[in-house]
């Protein structure tokens, strides 16, 4: 399977989280910001971190932005920089560009530029929560602290028709199963060792973000 290549331009909280998570999921990530401290803070968590101005076309070209599968423009404090970063990525031949918007006007401008998806964090969160509540699927990932979370995940194919004892989630994956949602039996909040994982079950896991993201990556690969 080809390793995906991403570039994240702008390392505020959103950009930093995006870059680190993509890296943990197995992607190659170039992280770019003009702030040296932000670049240093993320340097050991991504493939390549570089301090440069995202509005500098030649600088972005030199670090290989034109070779990535997708660019995420995570700048919101400066509308002009965000727009120029998108245009630079387009002129470098990047076909897939995502961007974060600060407000509705910024979102409209980014869409006019042809950005494939615009992230509006507060609006997106409200929308996701509405869908989750309607489906009785209350969360995808709930942060407990900076390193640990609770996550819902659809059962991997290799787990189907096996017991929790056989699967040994703590030993094999470093996580604990705290609930199982089944189409037939509903929500089991006290799963036992001999409970069987059925096709289309959803598991609620608790553990380190690093371990949870690895399981999410395996799910995305269709294992």
Structure description:
This protein is 37% helix and 26% strand. With 223 residues, it is of the alpha/beta class. The chain folds into two domains: 5-120, NAD(P)-binding Rossmann-like Domain (Rossmann fold, 3-Layer(aba) Sandwich), CATH 3.40.50; 136-220, 2-Layer Sandwich (Alpha-Beta Plaits), CATH 3.30.70. A six-stranded parallel β-sheet has the order 3-2-1-4-5-6, with helices on both faces. The chain has a five-stranded antiparallel β-sheet with strand order 7-8-13-10-11. It has a two-stranded antiparallel sheet with strand order 9-12.
Q: How would you summarize the topology of this molecule?
A:
Layout: E1 5-9, H1 13-24, E2 28-33, H2 36-42, E3 48-51, H3 57-62, E4 70-73, H4 79-91, E5 97-100, H5 104-112, E6 117-119, H6 121-134, E7 141-143, E8 148-154, E9 162-163, H7 164-167, H8 169-173, E10 175-182, E11 186-188, E12 196-197, E13 202-208, H9 209-220
Parallel strand pairs: 1-2, 1-4, 2-3, 4-5, 5-6
Antiparallel strand pairs: 7-8, 8-13, 9-12, 10-11, 10-13
Describe the largest sheet. Answer: 6 strands, parallel
**Terminal-residue CA separation:** 13 Å
In DSSP terms (H or I, runs of 4 or more residues), the helix count works out at 9
Helix content: 25-40%
Name the CATH superfamily assignment of the largest domain. Answer: NAD(P)-binding Rossmann-like Domain
Going by helix content, strand content and strand pairing, the class is: alpha/beta
Shape: elongated
CATH fold type of the largest domain: Rossmann fold
Mean pLDDT: 86
Q: Largest beta sheet: what is the strand line-up? A: 3-2-1-4-5-6
Q: What low-confidence regions span 5 or more consecutive residues with pLDDT below 50?
A: 133-138
CATH architecture of the largest domain: 3-Layer(aba) Sandwich
**Text of the CATH class of the largest domain:** Alpha Beta
Strand content: 25-35%
Give, in order, the helices and strands.
EHEHEHEHEHEHEEEHHEEEEH
**Number of β-strand runs:** 13
Number of structural units classed as domains: 2
- Provide the gyration radius in Å: 20 Å
């Amino acid at each position: 399977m080809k390793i995906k290549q991403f570039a994240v331009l702008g390392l505020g909280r959103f950009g930093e989280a995006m870059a680190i998570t993509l890296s943990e999921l197995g992607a190659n990530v170039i992280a770019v910001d003009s702030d040296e401290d932000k670049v240093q803070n993320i340097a050991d968590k991504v493939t390549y971190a570089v301090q440069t101005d995202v509005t500098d076309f030649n600088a972005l070209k030199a670090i290989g932005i034109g070779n990535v599968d997708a660019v995420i423009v995570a700048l919101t404090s400066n509308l002009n920089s965000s727009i120029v970063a998108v245009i630079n990525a387009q002129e470098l031949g990047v076909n897939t560009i995502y961007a974060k918007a600060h407000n509705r006007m910024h979102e409209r401008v980014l869409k006019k530029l042809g950005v494939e998806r615009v992230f509006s964090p507060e609006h997106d969160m409200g929308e996701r929560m509405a869908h989750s509540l309607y489906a009785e699927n209350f969360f995808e990932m709930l942060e407990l602290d900076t390193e640990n979370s609770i996550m819902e995940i659809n059962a991997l194919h290799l787990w189907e028709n096996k017991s929790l004892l056989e699967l040994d989630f703590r030993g094999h994956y470093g996580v604990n199963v705290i609930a199982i949602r089944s189409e037939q039996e509903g929500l089991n909040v006290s799963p036992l060792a001999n409970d069987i994982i059925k096709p289309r079950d959803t598991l609620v896991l608790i553990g380190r973000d690093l371990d949870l993201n690895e399981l999410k990556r395996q799910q995305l690969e269709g294992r």
